[in-house]
Amino acid sequence: MTRDQYTFTDPTALYAEIEPSTQHQDEPGLDAKLTPKPDLGEETYRGSGRLAGRKALITGGDSGIGAATAIAFAREGADVAIAYLPAEQEDADRIAGLILEAGVAAVQLPGDLADPDYCRGLIDRAVDQLGGLDILVNNGGKQIFNEDITTLPDDQWQDTFDVNVRATFLLTKAAVPHLRPGSTIINTTSSQAYSPSPTLLDYAATKWAINGFTKAVAQQLAPKGIRVNAVAPGPVWTVLQVTDGQPPEKLAEFGEDTPLGRMGQPAEMAPAYVFLASAESSYVVGETLSANGGKPTP
Description:
Elements: E1 55-59, H1 64-75, E2 79-84, H2 89-101, E3 106-110, H3 116-130, E4 135-138, H4 154-175, E5 184-188, H5 201-221, E6 227-233, H6 266-277, E7 288-291
Parallel strand pairs: 1-2, 1-4, 2-3, 4-5, 5-6, 6-7
Helix pairs in contact: 1-2, 1-6, 3-4, 4-5
């Protein structure tokens, strides 16, 4: 029997065959070169029409959690636009192909979230090419480890905030005039917002900021019928980890400190985004849905 997201499964035994090893790629990296390959749900996600007719923009949609979410949204019936860095074109082409295979529209919008002009124009480009917008997923992010605040470069701190926080603000601000009641915005925060690693000072600070932004703007937009929520992944196997997101020597034990005893896979995150994007979560507003392998959160 082919396993999908509905298959009764022992969560501690999933993905035992996927064991990360010491490796490195230059930022931003490619899923195509990641070993072992993460599960994006290519063979396992089964749609059921939960987002039929919707139109979604996903930043960082070429790889990792964004790519898994793009595949899931497409199989649930949504037309999907993905934003990504031009250097990630190989990954983006593959994901666009999988979106098209689901029988929906795929739009590719390369650019850099660190560029405010790109962010300001991205929503209009997505609306024009999709014919509207119902779902915005602010997922694209930057994560570079550093072990000592005295050696953390000022420009790294600023770049991390520009990509993770400023882009979330700019895209949300630009999207609101296009969103009708029933639309949703989903931001990607992190377990780092609650339990920060000492080596991820700037990244953890941005994820805490995104969490607060989500809860504040959700209250502003709820009376308009626009729901804003967030997903807080824990340790998930993505190319972000091998592009200096983690110290290379720690990759072999990545995620082993969770109660489930393992890292997560992008395919395990996508259903959380589907739930928050769908009408099933119509009374869920300002929520941060943790998918972190069991680590307690506030």
